[in-house]
Design a protein that fits this description.
binds magnesium ion, binds adenosine-5'-triphosphate
Length: 654
């Protein structure tokens, strides 16, 4: 961004009060903000006491060597014990932990907490037999099957930091992550089910392990999921069912220091080379458990929670595995895609299990908007009581669509801002407290200090735009970038003194609510004005014919940059028939909503947008296209043919 602050273009006046019954029984009330403000560290110490510690911590935060934080440093605990055993010991062994729904419709499995304890214990014993010791790194490359959860918890149980690599990544991406973390064991499967067919995984592991830098991998533990033929390296490869199933289902968890490494997770790579984010034990579990209880208002006896993320990214770590299980939740785990075998699959799952709390991403909501309102309307979604969103800014129209078509115009929506680096939710409404605003993540959670500052680090207000920063350390913060303290300092702590720089643009409205405006790297500079990608995209999505939009700034001799928009039209709109008239209509629509400065110079209807496997739009690739450049790193892209399709649409593109 230049020295101009971000323009404030979008106005949104709609408000939604929390439902009275939810507010009356909410886990967290407005008082929590006051309490945390009066004594922030005391507040977090109290949240930490909700966990079961082998040695209770007496210290809360050690910030003597900033920005290298230690939380609850003299405490000891075992994460797997907290997520599993303690619920069994409290008499909840028969409670369902996981309703597993495979992609093939009749392929389901119900796992109680007692069973989870046995499965995790066996897996922990198996890893120990393979020689895995506390501190050794284990790479996990699995589909969304229960063994992914067992494997993560087994690693946590024996103190072996895991590095989960998304099952859709290529052999190269996997090899780079194995090498960076210096993993000793890889846990994978023969494959998984994807769009109605078995899809192999093990070949990518075999290929990755031929790459230099992966030599320290001693064993590959392979879950049999599809039963398809799989190449086998004797002495290295071990079947899960042969090694794990025969182990004792008892295992005594060892307590680890609160700062013992829990996992390394590589960021989703939206902007460039992924970073190996290191999270540790006590603070991470404290904040994931607290935020899950607070933001989703989880009632473990009655709620059925479902987070649609993949365990391969941070939302899966914090809000499928650690947060919900630490809270004793009953949750759904679904293997497949939302449109297999039909575009109502998700809503069928909500109806089947009576899901009450749903957590998903704007990309999925926009896809459902594109498919049409009639699809969710066929299912009974009346069990839902809180809806969550994460991953990108949610366009106000997508927010309204979500509330109306999924939430029956009844459920609060919690738009949760956070990152791999923050470990847990940081900025979000509370469902029983906050009057929500479509498109705004609103306010930092109790105990979190975050704000928006301008170039000179001065706080902005009244619609002023700038950079989102976190101003005080928080329990689940990243501790460093694995093996690269300098990159940790440079990336997050050098832009502003004593403030964590998140890399996201934001503004604050007159009520003090925070609006995320997209990544700082993506902000466009048009005739001296900094314009947010999010605001222009939201204006486009507010047009009834548009389901999704991505905008970028392309170099322009007159205006520094000009706005180029790529739009996906709603299912019932025929792009060919609409032709240039629609493009003109959309350009005028944006001008009307945001002002002439934000009017896109070019608008291109496309069938797909380039996205990371976690569903985020990769604008830098679109910028490459708009500027007729060779594409940058595409290794984290879902489907590279999307780029060819888009390039072929551009006049003059190579
Ligand atoms: P990389 O850092 O490698 O480019 P990434 O930032 O996509 O990858 P994640 O940690 O998965 O990796 O994503 C965090 C980012 O997602 C945030 O910095 C922000 O840009 C965006 N984001 C997440 N939740 C929200 C939200 N509720 N509103 C707006 N943006 C969000
Ligand atoms: Mg990031």
């Amino acid at each position: 961004m230049s020295n101009e602050s971000l323009a404030n273009l979008l106005k949104e006046e709609r408000r939604f009060e929390p439902p009275a019954d939810l507010a009356a029984a909410a886990n967290v009330t407005a008082e929590a903000y006051e309490q945390a403000k009066a004594d922030r560290l005391g507040f977090w110490a109290e949240q930490a006491r909700q966990l079961t510690w082998a040695t209770e911590p007496t210290q809360t935060l050690d910030w003597s060597n900033p920005p290298f934080a230690k939380w609850f440093a003299d405490g000891k605990l075992n994460v797997a014990y907290n997520c599993v055993d303690r619920h069994v010991e409290a008499g909840h062994g028969d409670r369902v932990a996981i309703h597993f729904e495979g992609e093939p419709a009749d392929d389901t499995r119900t796992i109680t907490y007692a069973e989870l304890q046995r499965e995790v214990s066996k897996a922990a014993n198996a890893l120990t037999e393979l020689g895995v010791r506390a501190g050794d790194r284990v790479a996990i490359y699995l589909p969304m099957i229960p063994e992914a959860v067992f494997a993560m918890l087994a690693c946590a149980r024996i103190g072996a930091p895991h590095s989960v690599v998304f099952g859709g990544f290529s052999a190269d991406a996997l090899a780079a992550r194995i090498e960076d973390a210096d993993a000793r064991v890889v846990i994978t499967s023969d494959g998984g089910y994807r769009r109605g067919k078995p899809s192999a995984l093990k070949p990518a592991v075999d290929e990755a392990l031929t790459r230099p830098g992966t030599e320290n991998v001693r064993n590959v533990l392979v879950v049999r999921r599809t039963g398809e033929d799989t190449a086998w390296t004797e002495g290295r490869d071990v079947w899960w069912h042969e090694l794990v199933d025969g182990q004792s289902d008892r295992h005594t968890p060892e307590a680890f220091d609160a700062e013992h490494p829990l996992f390394i997770l590589y960021t989703s790579g939206t902007t460039g080379k992924p970073k190996g984010i290191l999270h540790t034990t006590g603070g991470y579990l404290t904040q994931t458990a607290y935020t899950h209880r607070a933001v989703f208002d989880l009632k473990p006896e009655t709620d059925v929670y479902w987070c649609t993320a993949d365990v391969g990214w941070v939302t899966g770590h914090s809000y499928i595995v650690y947060g919900p299980l630490a809270n004793g939740a009953t949750e759904v785990l679904y293997e497949g895609t939302p449109d297999t075998p039909h575009q109502g699959r998700w809503w069928e799952i909500v109806q089947k299990y009576g899901v009450t709390l749903l957590y998903t991403a704007p990309t999925a909501i926009r896809a459902c908007m594109k498919w049409g309102d009639d699809i969710p309307a066929k299912f009974d979604l009346s069990s839902l009581r809180v809806l969550g969103s994460v991953g990108e800014p949610i366009n106000p129209e997508a927010w309204i669509w979500y509330r109306k078509n999924i939430g029956g115009d009844r459920t609060p929506i919690v738009d949760t801002w956070w990152q791999t680096e923050t470990g847990a939710i940081m900025v979000s409404p509370l469902p029983g407290v906050t009057a929500t605003k479509p498109g705004s993540a609103q306010i930092p959670l109790p105990g979190i200090s975050a704000t928006v500052v301008d170039d000179e680090a001065k706080e902005v207000g009244n619609g002023g735009g700038g950079y989102l920063v976190v101003t005080e350390p928080w329990p689940s913060m990243l501790r460093t970038i694995w093996g690269d303290d300098q990159r940790y300092l440079d990336t997050y702590w050098s832009r502003f003194e004593n403030r964590y720089f998140a890399g996201d643009g934001a503004k604050k409205d007159t009520d003090g609510d925070i609006w995320l405006l997209g990544r700082v790297d993506d902000v466009m500079l048009v005739s001296g004005h900094n314009i947010s990608t999010t605001e222009v995209e939201s204006a486009l999505v507010s047009h009834p014919k548009v389901a999704e939009a991505a905008v970028v700034g392309a170099t322009d001799p007159q205006t520094t940059q000009s706005i180029v928009a790529f739009v996906i039209l709603r299912g019932n709109v025929d792009a060919e028939a609409e032709g240039e008239a629609l493009v003109t209509e959309l350009r005028n629509h944006v001008a009307k909503h945001l002002g002439p400065i934000a009017k896109p110079k070019r608008i291109l209807p496309v069938a797909e947008l380039p996205k990371t496997r976690s569903g985020k739009i990769m604008r830098r690739l679109l910028r490459d296209v708009a500027e007729n450049r060779a594409l940058g790193d595409v290794t984290t892209l879902t489907d590279s043919s999307v780029m060819e399709l888009i390039q072929s649409k551009l006049p003059g593109a190579s």
